[in-house]
């Protein structure tokens, strides 16, 4: 993930912590897959599996942060190495929050099942958005492993698709609630679920921005796309 150093031990440490981030990413991706399956099949078992893995995600975040702190204290890195370690810390935090959103989806699915009327709601569009968000996170992790700024830029552009799916879904839910007041409670659950999916896309976008920060040394958060394109070129 980074250039070679005179200290092979430093390279080994960087490689180790980078691998741990990818491992955490894989675990979180698994949570999302289970959450999407729980949504698609209204599966109590799958939803419970998502919540059960939350403790492991939290523990891994703490372990990675501890390892990063140790590397920074001992190596006192500068320039790109320091940016890399800072970015890894922020990416880890984003991945942990993706895990939180997956758990939120699982809890919402259990709540919707509990209402007894899950099939009456427009969940198909939500599954499409969930697949988009999951795919975006997978691309972000792959781009992070390769420090691919072009792929990072493409991810930032693709995040707009998830936002549009979310806006369209909200309008549809409002229609359902207006037509049948009995659908208000389960519809609100789906609304919170949709917001959790949108947030997964946001965290993937954050990771993409971190890639540009590592490689280009530019903080592109809150910057318009056309300006980010100039930085990446």
TrEMBL record:
Principal subcellular localisation of the protein: cytoplasm
Signal peptide region: none
GO biological process, one term: negative regulation of phosphate metabolic process
This protein's UniProt keywords: Cytoplasm, Phosphate transport, Transport
Record carries keyword Cytoplasm: yes
Protein location: Cytoplasm
Pfam entry (one): PhoU
Gene3D superfamilies xref list: Phosphate transport system protein phou homolog 2, domain 2
Gene Ontology CC terms, in alphabetical order: cytoplasm
Xref: InterPro entries: PhoU, PhoU-like_sf, PhoU_dom
Domain called PhoU: residue spans: 22-108, 129-211
Cytoplasm listed as a keyword: yes
Family statement: Belongs to the PhoU family.
Function text: Plays a role in the regulation of phosphate uptake.
Matches recorded under PANTHER family: PHOSPHATE-SPECIFIC TRANSPORT SYSTEM ACCESSORY PROTEIN PHOU
Subunit structure, interactors included: Homodimer.
Protein name: Phosphate-specific transport system accessory protein PhoU
Organism: Rhodoferax antarcticus ANT.BR
Lineage: Bacteria, Pseudomonadati, Pseudomonadota, Betaproteobacteria, Burkholderiales
């Amino acid at each position: 993930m980074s250039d070679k150093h005179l200290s092979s031990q430093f390279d080994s440490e960087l490689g180790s912590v980078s691998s741990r981030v990818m491992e955490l990413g894989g675990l979180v991706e698994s949570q999302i897959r289970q959450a999407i399956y729980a949504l698609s099949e209204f599966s109590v078992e799958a939803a419970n599996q998502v919540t059960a893995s939350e403790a492991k995600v939290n523990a891994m975040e703490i372990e990675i942060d501890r390892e990063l702190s140790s590397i920074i204290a001992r190596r006192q890195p500068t320039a790109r190495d320091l940016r890399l370690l800072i970015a890894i810390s922020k990416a880890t935090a984003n991945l942990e929050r993706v895990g939180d959103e997956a758990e939120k989806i699982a809890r919402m699915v259990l709540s919707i099942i509990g209402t007894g009327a899950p099939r009456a709601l427009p969940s198909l569009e939500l599954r499409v958005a969930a697949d988009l968000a999951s795919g975006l996170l997978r691309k972000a992790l792959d781009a992070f492993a390769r420090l691919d700024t072009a792929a990072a830029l493409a991810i930032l552009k693709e995040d707009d698709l998830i936002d549009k799916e979310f806006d369209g879904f909200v309008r549809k839910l409002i229609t359902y609630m207006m037509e049948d007041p009995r659908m208000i409670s389960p519809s609100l659950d789906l609304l919170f679920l949709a917001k959790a999916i949108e947030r997964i896309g946001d965290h993937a976008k954050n990771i993409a921005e971190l890639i540009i920060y590592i490689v280009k040394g530019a903080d592109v958060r809150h910057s318009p796309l056309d300006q980010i394109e100039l930085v990446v070129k």
